[in-house]
């Protein structure tokens, strides 16, 4: 090529799942008509001997066995869910009519790109093992070896993802919101779920979700219906939902069925109340500034009070009667509503403090739980609990994760000269003058020292210097009155209603993220995406991999347990799972798999060049890429010696330690190649440079929405395993 003299070097190729082809001499010549196999006409006859990449991408219409199938690349993903299908497994309209009406929803066919009408491959001939696919069809590739997966490493990153639409290792789920692309979740990620029955809607259940852009709600009865309006990127295949106006990020939710409201707590310290009917699109019914910091947790007491927790151990109780009066006012009197509620709170931190010391730890209140049967409220920080009387607001007990009573609580309780009824009057109204506790000099000094020690513990807990593996992440009450907690080390502990630790269970090593009780079962969600079911004695009943990321929140509604994953996907699991119904549903879906699943093939163009720190001309690049046939869907480029020199290698190694990469020459090559590929409808989806090595991937524009969750990594294998020239 003009301007650059390529030098033979060791091949620099990305790790791709490819098919191994036999030697050329063992394959039929596509132009040879002497053999019967070559005489058979096949659209694959003119395909050169190179690698193929297979993908399970479903078309919108079912293919007849010998006829060409429609393209895998419509302009936008179809909006569809089934009881077990991933986003890419889309049943056609004809299949949904002949199958169970509760599993599939019909969709209209969408236009396809003419360059991707490739030969059909019947799903009926798939092998039993879902991770192995046969060679491409046609006589030209009849002797190709089957795809295989290496077993040199047990790491999940080296395993190909299962292609089966129905997985045998878990119950078939309801895909309420299939996993969205990671890049589409910026500014709209979800973090919490709750279910609330809509008043006057019979048995209809609404699933609410809190997110960075506000709140949204799904009607579970609409789970199998198509959306009536276009959805944003990432929600095309989601069930129909309604959403609020854009608000500060919401981080917690609590249902208030008695008032027909759903409360949301926000990062700016604001609490908003939304009518369960008509929903969030009508705007918040009530809202006020509750805290200076984020609202981490909320709960409704049996007396109708709203408890909210924030950073620094602050807990406020909002009077239920004031909330009722505010709801009775007209919407036009919003200012008066806010003032009425804001002036009715009780600051529990201030109420239990005495002489500058407080028996509560100064850590964020992450969890709140109402024990209605005993009229108690539990609040949880990092490594401790506090028990409150929900009627008198009296602090009953402060215990750590081992069940030991905090000594600070005993000391301050003994020296407290005021009753809780008196303190409630002192600290519930800002107009009254706050009385000062008559403590002597030594008591004040001791309290100051205890407060300083608590501040050190708080900083240590936040920085991870303490026993972080025992940090409390989940809190729930079971139907028999027991309290269950989940910790970072994967343990699940059982407590009685008085705050006494009874026993601990360890069924999984991953961190517990959420716990939910329904009937005689406990559902436990873990950081690694696993779900486990326990009985009320702590015995393990079953479990499966529910998601590929942490299970942030769970909620029960209708006949499902809904789980929210860290990547934004929402799935519903039948309350009877695992059970006999799972096997029946799985077998039915497997039998109908041919109606909604296809395998298509696309060509991958892989290019490697040692550029010797030079820049190529435009003509050289065009001659190198040889652009190309329409079957090519992915272009992968690997360059070596983009930059050279000991100084640059040392500087690159230093930049890698702080997460920086790239160079002027590297940017030039990316831009130059990108300009040529742009004329052939390609877009770059990812790149990575380490010193003089550069890898980049481009895909066709009509395939880009199938590509998401881009990740890359670089391992320096040069001098001292620190220099990135290898």
From TrEMBL:
Pfam families: Beta-prop_IP5PC_F, Exo_endo_phos2. Residues 607-726 form the Inositol polyphosphate-related phosphatase domain. Residues 25-83, 132-183 are annotated as: Disordered. The keyword Signal applies. GO terms for biological process: phosphatidylinositol dephosphorylation. Residues 1-28 form the signal peptide. GO terms for molecular function: phosphatidylinositol-4,5-bisphosphate 5-phosphatase activity. Residues 26-39 have a biased composition (Low complexity). This is Inositol polyphosphate-related phosphatase domain-containing protein. It comes from Aegilops tauschii subsp. strangulata.
